[in-house]
Amino acid sequence: MSLVERIEICLKGLGEAIGIKKSAVYLWSPENMCFVKGICSKWLPLKSQKIISRNIISITSEETIYYKLRKGQSVIIDGKEASSYLPDTKSIFIFPLICKRDFLGIFVMDFEDISIRVDKNEILDLINMCSKHLSISIENVQLYERMNRENERYKQELNIAYNIQHSLLPRDIPTLKGMNMSAKSIPAKIVGGDFYYFKRFRANKHEVGISIGDVAGKGVPAALIMAMALSTIEQCIRYFNEPGIAFVNINSIITSH
């Protein structure tokens, strides 16, 4: 169930319990320091969500009201002041949605719509219970969305690492008379520590040096060591044209790290 659906169910249930005809939830963006999303239940006869959203933002931008809400205090606006923000409204009730001290948004309703048959204390208890439920739902959904974004970013970074790692491996495989060679690295995870390298040490076309490496461990740490080892092998073999001398220096450099 989406966050919007959960909020709409909660608003509808509260509306039916105490006779609210107009209500909405506005989500707060800490990054943008403003309300970024207004959620109104479909069954509510709101004239225009855009107008409501704009007027709610103008209310909550007032310093006194804003700090009250951030401190967890509810706000009631009566009379002409209420109708100046929302036409045909005599009383606006704004209740902050807070979970674990995080300001998540506000729950707004037309307080005048509340049934006179319902006890005031009962109303406040129901609103408080609804607000807590909304706060927990919003917190859980936002946490889930953040985790999904982080996982997606992590997957993208691993895919980039995979492409970089495979670009380090030699693409051109030497050919030898009477011998067919092929090479492929398939890591246990997206990236790994296996690698290979080809090098002709001498001008003789019949002699090819082959290096095969398997770094202990898996994943990103092994991939980083693999990149260092492969770079060291390539540089040393270019500088030292004898296999024995080259690998003595390769071993010395790798073990020093």
TrEMBL record:
One of its GO terms (molecular function) is phosphatase activity. The keyword Hydrolase applies. InterPro entries: Bact_Sigma-Reg, GAF-like_dom_sf, PPM-type-like_dom_sf, PPM-type_phosphatase-like_dom. Residues 205-254 form the PPM-type phosphatase domain. The keyword Cell inner membrane does not apply. Keywords: Hydrolase. This is PPM-type phosphatase domain-containing protein. It comes from marine sediment metagenome.
